[in-house]
């Protein structure tokens, strides 16, 4: 019998737990909605539906054991009351609505934010692995290992890689849980000076690696409904983060309403409080130049700031960005699908689960990349664009 895709609630990204702790302390009653979108055309999920449903049922039986709780408690930014809450926590199947119409997977998550926030990453990992199992039952593992060796050699042989650091961000679209572990083990063993760690808490715990992550888009999106005014939602979200973590986990995500609008809110106060910024859409060179110029206008030396790149990266792209900007800032790289799902030759699924509503109100991500906006309410998307003075984005999967 095939083993379950998800065997631990820690088999997810660190930022899910860091955001969850902030939700527990600041917005425990918030109600949210998330929706799944597959951007790859022509995918028929019908044959996978029953297996995906079984995997979700299993996911909802999992609890954190004492060793896992002790590990979380050992992270200096995780608080004791959150550990007590997690001791009793289990995902609730009632909050997931799953169907398939004409091959299109319909996945809706609706319920309390505190009790649904952990669904996204394991659900995407389940969908990815079930799809890969069904379509590639006998992959060429020798080819996969050769590709992995090529990636390791690329870094080993880079003449100017001193200081180059990258991390695994590949949980949600990995080929399989087992392959994910093999990839991370190899990078940690072969490239100890370049491989910084992993966003996956379970692998970080088991392999003694640094867990990496801060916040995701949903955190800033939710404040579009939770903040005092829409125009102040980014500032409210950043202020709440500072209140929760008091200087720890200081990398701010910039592209929920676009880099230009973000920088208008990221004033001297926030620029001094946060250690750096994360890029996740748009041209990374343009984004970097804007970030460097912003710090310099504020009379802050950007050489002391960390700029994290995490948008559809490959090692080639990461090394090129490092060569261009090392010395001007501290570049760091989170690489996902390129590391954990480079097994077969066919295109990998481009899929997401995004928050679409909070407390009954539409929320959205505008992004700096065309087609990445995801909102069901075109009117709200237009209003959000107007409030933040950005060009209106095209919604992905709007209804």
Number of domains: 2
How does the overall form come out from the CA principal axes?
globular
Mean pLDDT: 95
**Can you write the helix and strand succession as a string?**
HEHHHEEHHHEHEHHHEHHEHEHEHEEH
Q: What's the alpha carbon Rg, rounded to whole Å? A: 20 Å
What is the name of the CATH topology of the largest domain? nicotinate phosphoribosyltransferase
Q: What characterizes the major β-sheet?
A: 6 strands, parallel
Determine the CATH superfamily of the largest domain.
Answer: nicotinate phosphoribosyltransferase
Describe the structure in brief.
The chain is of the alpha/beta class and 399 residues long. It has 2 domains: 14-137 and 347-368, nicotinate phosphoribosyltransferase (Alpha-Beta Barrel), CATH 3.20.140; 141-339, Alpha-Beta Barrel (nicotinate phosphoribosyltransferase). Helices cover 43% and strands 14% of the residues.
Model description:
There is one protein chain. With 399 residues, the protein is an alpha/beta fold. The chain folds into 2 domains: 14-137 and 347-368, nicotinate phosphoribosyltransferase (Alpha-Beta Barrel), CATH 3.20.140; 141-339, nicotinate phosphoribosyltransferase, CATH 3.20.140.10. 43% of the residues lie in helices and 14% in strands. The chain has helices at residues 14-26, 49-59, 66-73, 80-88, 113-116, 120-135, 141-156, 177-190, 201-207, 217-226, 233-245, 259-265, 268-273, 284-297, 315-325, 337-340, 378-387; strands at 31-38, 96-101, 104-112, 166-168, 195-198, 251-253, 276-279, 306-309, 330-335, 351-358, 361-362. The strands form 2 sheets. A 6-stranded parallel sheet has the order 5-4-9-8-7-6. The chain has a 5-stranded antiparallel sheet with strand order 2-3-1-10-11. α10 (217-226) packs across α11. The chain is globular and about 55 Å long. The two termini are 40 Å apart. The modification Phosphohistidine is found at residue 217. One of its GO terms (cellular component) is cytosol.
């Amino acid at each position: 019998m095939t083993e379950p895709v998800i065997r631990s609630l820690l088999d997810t990204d660190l930022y899910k737990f860091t955001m969850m702790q902030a939700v527990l302390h600041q917005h425990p009653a918030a109600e949210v909605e998330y929706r799944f979108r597959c951007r790859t055309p022509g995918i028929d999920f019908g044959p996978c539906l029953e297996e995906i449903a079984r995997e979700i049922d299993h996911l909802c039986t999992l609890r954190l054991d004492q060793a896992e709780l002790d590990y979380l408690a050992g992270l200096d930014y995780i608080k004791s009351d959150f550990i007590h809450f997690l001791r009793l926590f289990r995902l609730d199947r009632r909050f997931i609505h799953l169907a398939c119409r004409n091959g299109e997977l319909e996945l809706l998550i609706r319920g309390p934010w505190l009790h649904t926030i952990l669904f996204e990453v394991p659900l995407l990992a389940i969908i990815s692995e079930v799809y890969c199992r069904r379509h590639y039952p006998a992959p060429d593992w020798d080819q996969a290992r050769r590709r992995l060796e090529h990636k390791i050699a690329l870094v080993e042989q880079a003449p100017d890689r001193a200081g180059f650091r990258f991390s695994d961000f590949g949980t949600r679209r990995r080929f399989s849980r087992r392959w994910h572990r093999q990839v991370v083990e190899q990078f940690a063993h072969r490239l100890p000076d370049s491989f910084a760690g992993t966003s996956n808490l379970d692998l970080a715990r088991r392999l003694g690696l640094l867990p990496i992550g801060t916040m995701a888009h949903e955190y800033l999106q939710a404040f579009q409904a939770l903040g005092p005014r829409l125009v102040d939602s980014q500032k409210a979200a950043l202020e709440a983060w500072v209140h929760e973590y008091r200087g720890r986990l200081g990398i701010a995500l910039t592209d929920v309403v676009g880099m230009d609008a973000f920088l208008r809110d990221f004033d001297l106060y926030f620029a001094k409080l946060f250690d750096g910024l994360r890029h996740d859409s748009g041209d990374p060179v343009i984004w970097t130049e804007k970030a460097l110029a912003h710090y310099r206008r504020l009379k802050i030396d950007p050489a002391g700031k960390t700029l994290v790149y995490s948008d559809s990266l490959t090692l080639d792209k990461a090394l090129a960005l490092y060569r261009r900007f090392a010395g001007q800032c501290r570049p760091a790289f989170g690489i996902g699908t390129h590391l954990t799902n480079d097994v077969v030759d066919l295109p990998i699924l481009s899929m997401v689960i995004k928050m679409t509503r909070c407390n009954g109100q539409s929320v959205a991500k505008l992004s700096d990349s065309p087609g990445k906006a995801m909102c069901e309410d075109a009117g709200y998307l237009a209003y959000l664009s107007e409030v933040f003075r950005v060009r209106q984005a095209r919604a992905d999967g709007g209804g």
